[in-house]
Amino acid sequence: MKKFPKDFLWGGAVAANQVEGAYRENGKGLSTSDVQPHGVFGDVIERVPGDSSIKDVAIDFYNRYPDDIALFAEMGFRCLRVSIAWTRIFPNGDEERPNEDGLAFYDRLFDELAKHSIVPLVTLSHYEMPWGLVKNYDGWGSRETIGFFERYARAVFTRYSDKVKLWLTFNEINMSLHAPMTGVGLPEGSSEGLVYQAIHHQLVASALAVKSCHEIVENGKIGNMLLGGLMYPLSCRPEDVFETLQQNRSWQFFGDVQCRGSYPGYMLRYFREHGISLDITEADRDALKETVDFVSFSYYMTGCVTTNEELNLQARGNILSMVPNPHLSSSQWGWQIDPIGLRTLLNVLWDRYQKPLFIVENGLGAKDSIESDGSINDEYRIRYLNDHLVQVREAIEDGVEIMGYTSWGPIDLVSASKAEMSKRYGFIYVDLDDNGKGTLARYRKKSFYWYKDVIASEGANLQEN
To answer: CA–CA separation, 360 vs 355, rounded Å?
Structure first.
């Protein structure tokens, strides 16, 4: 029988800015997420006294985490991916000393996970950075930000070295190409050269964090985190096949630097041909040689690539401007559903890097409804996750080393793209609407019991198509 490894880390994944709330409590500073009330693709709006955003309270995980963790434990979670809000530790980003109240909150959170034998997987920066660093230092556009991030990373590695052994640096680091404010703290419309320079600073900071983790956290492991944007050629025309190679390289480049320790030749050529001249010092090159221990990634969908300009124009406005695959169905939000693509991606990344892989985001955003008897029958989510996990199991049979699987949004949370609650991912329903109204009560969905059985059976209950 095809099985998952006994030490496979089953669980779920959340991000501080989408679940915690408490956006100014106990000394927390403003983050880039706090000034993007309509999501990562929305406008930046300076905060003024008395204004509000749905993310200010979110699902109140900051106060309700013991109860939510108990629900995760009821499902049998072995791992929970969380992020630390950088601004809880360094409110403006450039302070000399960390904020003790912020550090103490995550002590309590990690202690609660330990009570339930749930392993924390912690992201240092998940779609947010201190707004103070953006206003006063040009975000990641400034080389100074590298030092501020290293100070932050070393502070949390030191504080939690006995409690957290699995770390990630930047969430979906390649997303900076599509949402520069969210990724690197630069305004939308920034030149490609400026964005790539900011990305370079971030890659150096990531490598320095890897080095710090190896020095400070005994038996610690630290990975990168990619948005797994696997693309297919729309046709077998050689032009489409080669353009697909280039499109895949545009995000694989980040993994290449973080796993191999230097810039690949194809990116150096891209920079030359597009007039991009990066400030890369010898110290930067030395820093980049410190590579990650494992590769983590999100996977939601695939897309197609073509050199047909008419089709490309029609695709503009789709997420990442992907050309739709005519052989796939789509979710309510237009995200194409491709379980086999996950197996393909796992094999591609394993072949490319030969480092352990960790699927740290995968899930289905959908509109859920509560029946008259209080049940939430999300069969569509069960089918989606079942079909993807079957392909994960197949990849393991292919010989891919996979550390674990943390589904995105095991509890409903505020979506990153548009800051809405109606796009629900969770096994646990949260009574909150897109206007931030509701009781915040938690309800188990049908998928809650299904995922509990998946974990208990080590995936034996998954249904082959």
So the answer is: 15
pTM for the model: 0.97
The answer to whether 80 and 120 have CB atoms below 8 angstroms apart is yes
3-state secondary structure of 143: coil
Phi-psi region of 60 (alpha: psi -120 to 50; beta: other; left: phi over 0): left
The tens digit of pLDDT for each residue in 152-202 reads 999 999 999 999 999 999 999 999 999 999 999 999 999 999 999 999 999
**Distance of alpha carbon 226 from alpha carbon 224, whole angstroms:** 7
Q: Which residues pair with 226 in a beta bridge?
A: 297
Tokens standing for residue 143:
């080389």
Contacts of 442 (CB under 8 A, 6+ apart): 67, 68, 71, 411, 428, 429, 430, 431
Count of Cβ atoms closer than 10 Å to residue 108 Cβ: 11
Q: Which residues contact 341 (CB under 8 A, 6 or more apart)?
A: 230, 299, 301, 302
Position 371 confidence tier, pLDDT thresholds 50, 70, 90: very high
Q: Which tokens go with 345? A: 């991606």
Q: H or E stretch including 149?
A: helix 144-159
Nearest to 44 by CA among 31, 58, 59: 31
* pLDDT band of 320, cuts 50, 70, 90: low
Alpha-carbon distance values, 104 to 98, 107, 157, 220 (Å): 11, 5, 14, 21
Catalytic residues: 172, 361
Rounded-to-integer distance, Cα 373 and Cα 370, Å = 8
Structure confidence at residue 316 (pLDDT):
66
Q: Which amino acid is at 276?
A: I
Burial profile 420-444: b = 16 or more Cβ within 10 angstroms, e = fewer: bbbbbbbbbbbebeeebeeeeebbb
440's torsion region: left (phi>0), alpha (psi -120 to 50) or beta?
left
With beta carbons less than 8 A apart as the criterion, state whether 121 and 171 touch: no
Q: Which residue has the tokens 């003024």?
A: 48
Q: How far apart are CA 267 and CA 246, in angstroms?
A: 10
Q: Where are the beta strands (DSSP E) in 332-432?
A: 357-361, 402-408, 428-430
Residue 190's closest CA among 37, 31, 44, 85? 44
47 token code pair: 């905060």
Q: Measured between alpha carbons, how far is residue 71 from residues 74, 113, 371, 429 in Å?
A: 5, 11, 21, 12
